[in-house]
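User:
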Amino acid sequence: RFKTRLGGPGRPDIACRRVTYLLYFARIVHRGGTRREGNVTSQRSLGLTSATALVVANMIGAGVFTTSGFLLADLGSPLYVLAAWAVGGLQAALGALCYGALARRIPESGGEYLFLSRALHPAAGYVAGWLSLFVGFSAPLAAAAFAFGAYARPWFGGAPPALAGTALILAFAAIHSSEVRRGAQVQNGAVLLKVILILVFVAYAAGRTPGLAVDSPPPFPAAAFGVSLVWISFSYSGWNAAVYVGGEIREPERTIPRSLILGTAIVTVLYLALNAVFVLSAPAADLAGKLEVGRIAARAVGGAVLEEAVAGLIALVLLSSVSSLVMAGPRVYAQMAADGYLPGRLAVASGPPRAAIAVQAGLALFFLWSATFEALLTWIGFTLSLSTAAAVAALIRLKAREGAALAVPGWPIVPWVFLAGVAAMIVFTASQRPLESLVGAAVIAAGFAVWRVQQGGCRRR
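Assistant: Predicted structure:
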């Protein structure tokens, strides 16, 4: 593994980088051979249940309880909204199959950063890690915290959503800074409880939905549908969550692909059921453009009592979403720090990456207090779609290079269909939401610029 790190494919052949790895190797020998994955100590304490729970918790968050109102306003029909959620689930499943193949080939922590560094170029990996820092985790963390504050606002005397969200981010940062296994136990319990409660709500509402007549849908709005898929991709974005903690998962070559597929399948079914209840339980005019669609639908089905119960359920869901984002994201920053691409204080020798958790919490608080919710959805979906597309492109390159030695389910249809779907979403979003698209492109360009500056400094040293 050390030889691969030092001179393997896709690694920069720079003297100062080699010195860095020699120093890490010396530390390993000095400590008696502590096992490391990608220069971060690996305890391999997470199994299939924890990995799947991480996927489910990352996926079920703010998006599913806040997006459909905006979708109705743009698409004009509940049927189109449900179709968009189904297409989004299919796209996520295709991505999970591709990432499962990548995880079998590179079963370590780091996600897109690690995949792109190994399979394409270190610059691509660096930019992916840069996006993870700003867009992949910190911004979604802010969105989930804001949604929690919006749903829980009546319980806190009408306090601003950002205020409750701030307390939530700080609380889970403290929990996950304590110990890896303890954080996983909190995570698993919250995920199991929220899945059970969602199923109970869906079963209750299905028998009491007023049975609203769905009018003939308007002409299919192709451009708006494409933008809607970008918003929905934010809701499904956690389908790749297990790859970020691959170095802490037992038997990662088997466990990670299974957890991705299993978690994505569970969430897709729950999303379709939930959104059927949301968009068919209340008149479209009452839901269109509204963030708290869960509250509105619950009030239409069961009155004020059910509304408060569902608000409590959604608050629990958002709690576990925040927990999962705080758990997964800092592992990427710690991996980048261990590789010399971020300040060394973010790396860890053992235990949770406390410094990285603190950095992510600070960025999330910045987004929480400075951006609108709808702008966050568009920006996150657009930019993360580009990042996942790059990872799948890396898989295609690896497959071309390694041939039959790398097994890719559904090759070549699955990865190419996934890329075609992402391309369509990007084109529609750039045409319909140019400002958010430009911001996403600017973040990517800034990542490349920082990479170039770092490499120039490394060469001078």
